[in-house]
């Protein structure tokens, strides 16, 4: 199979990578926070997928209480045990990390993959980390005409490391758990990025609690639902041998004491119940957003969406994104994701009032740009 293994070449967007593994024009290091830095922080933020109004006061209090212990080196055992109990797994299958982004770096360094494959469009940091570690990355590029859904046969048999998001950023597609588990096979590491799974009601299609899938690695983030992007906390769930390999390339004391306190707090029954309620509210707010977007005939929404964001396609997206900034809104450009192109934008789900204001601004921008 050629270096660009795909379920069909993307109909739009930059070319796939060369056989030498060049990024082919995609800025893999661009992320949504670039839209709201500095003076742009005053914009209404639909570019970053962190839940608004977070962290909650009770979580801030738990983090603040941990500051009295900053003189001691971090001890992650209590947080590790809390994550293990939360997923019904042994503690030896848990590794705490400084956000999911660190986990991608550890995997790229620790897993001796000969044929790593990343399924796109998806979060670009896994591919960037693999490239930085010297790997030549092959891409499976999913297509809009298929709803950006995975055809398992598109993953080459020789792939010994496969990375896919669920629900996937930026498409908001939720792949069936059985489909993803079916990618597992002896000698293959299957990495499923579930950074947004706790924003899915019931966490349906999650593989986090599974210990029967060979080579499975599940990544989780606490930064999205709980508003902890600045604290950097996530974790890896995997077979003990994989956890040991990742620990060997992880720096000493990589997770701070405040982050460990947050991880432990977010795994309590009351916190999980709060996250479940938040996921239901997000689903309702997402339905309102898609309904309002449907009023604009120029806009096509990728769906059905399952994450706390939606992917849209519209003409003149780059110019519209710029005009939206003038109107007070920041949105995420889509052309940095392999498999997408200049006609795509990603929108974070916000409350109904914010959505209504945004749709008015988007209609205005469309009228001006496409006139």
Tell me about this structure.
- The chain is α/β, with parallel strands linked by helices.
- It is 33% helix and 15% strand.
- The protein contains 11 helices and 12 strands.
- The chain has helices at 57-65, 77-87, 99-110, 125-132, 177-181, 223-226, 240-249, 257-265, 269-293, 317-326, 352-369; strands at 44-46, 94-97, 116-120, 138-141, 161-165, 189-193, 216-221, 234-238, 300-301, 309-313, 329-333, 344-348.
- The strands form 2 sheets. It has a 7-stranded mixed β-sheet with strand order 2-8-7-6-5-3-4, with helices on both faces.
- Strand 5 (161-165), helix 5 (177-181) and strand 6 (189-193) form a beta-alpha-beta unit.
- Helix 2 (77-87) packs parallel to helix 8 (257-265).
- Mean pLDDT is 93; it is low at 1-22.
The largest pleated sheet is described as:
7 strands, mixed
| Average residue-wise pLDDT | 93
Give the helix tally.
11
Radius of gyration: 20 Å
SS strand fraction: 5-15%
End-to-end separation in angstroms reads: 45 Å
Give the CA-based shape. Answer: globular
Question: What structural class should be given to the helix and strand makeup?
Answer: alpha/beta
User: How is the largest sheet built, in terms of strand order?
Assistant: 2-8-7-6-5-3-4
What is the H-and-E element order?
A: EHHEHEHEEHEEHEHHHEEHEEH
What is the helix fraction of residues, given as a range? 25-40%
- List low-pLDDT spans: 1-22
* Number of β-strand runs: 12
């Amino acid at each position: 199979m050629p270096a660009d293994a795909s379920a069909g070449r993307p109909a739009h967007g930059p070319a796939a990578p060369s056989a030498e593994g060049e990024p082919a024009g995609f800025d893999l290091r661009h992320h949504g926070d670039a839209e709201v830095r500095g003076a742009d922080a005053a914009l209404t933020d639909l570019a970053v997928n962190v839940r608004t109004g977070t962290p909650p006061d009770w979580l801030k209090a738990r983090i603040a209480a941990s500051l009295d212990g900053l003189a001691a080196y971090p001890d992650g055992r209590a947080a590790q045990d809390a994550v293990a109990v939360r997923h019904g797994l042994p503690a030896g299958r848990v590794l705490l990390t400084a956000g999911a982004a660190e986990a991608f770096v550890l995997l790229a360094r620790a897993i001796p993959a000969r044929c790593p494959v990343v399924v796109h469009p998806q979060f670009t940091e896994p591919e960037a980390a693999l490239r930085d570690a010297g790997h030549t990355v092959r891409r499976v590029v999913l297509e809009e005409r298929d709803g950006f859904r995975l055809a398992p046969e598109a993953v080459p048999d020789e792939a010994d490391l496969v990375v896919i998001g669920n629900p996937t950023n930026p498409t908001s597609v939720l792949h069936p758990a059985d489909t993803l588990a079916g990618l597992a096979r002896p000698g293959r590491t299957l990495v499923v990025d579930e950074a947004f799974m706790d924003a899915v009601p019931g966490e349906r299609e999650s593989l986090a609690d599974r210990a029967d899938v060979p080579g499975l690695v599940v990544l989780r983030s606490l930064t999205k639902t709980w508003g902890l992007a600045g604290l950097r906390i996530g974790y890896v769930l995997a077979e003990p041998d994989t956890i040991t390999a990742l620990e060997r390339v992880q720096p000493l004391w990589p997770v701070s004491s405040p982050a460990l306190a947050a991880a432990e707090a977010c795994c309590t029954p009351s916190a999980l119940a709060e996250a479940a309620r938040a996921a239901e509210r997000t689903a309702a707010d997402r339905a309102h957003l898609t309904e309002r977007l449907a009023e604009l005939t120029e806009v096509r929404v990728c769906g059905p969406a399952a994450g706390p964001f939606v992917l849209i396609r519209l003409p003149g997206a780059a110019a519209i994104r710029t005009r939206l900034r003038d109107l007070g809104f920041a949105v995420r450009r889509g052309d940095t994701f392999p498999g997408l192109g200049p006609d795509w934008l990603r929108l974070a789900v916000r409350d109904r009032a914010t959505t209504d204001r945004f749709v008015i601004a988007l209609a205005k921008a469309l009228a001006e740009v496409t006139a």
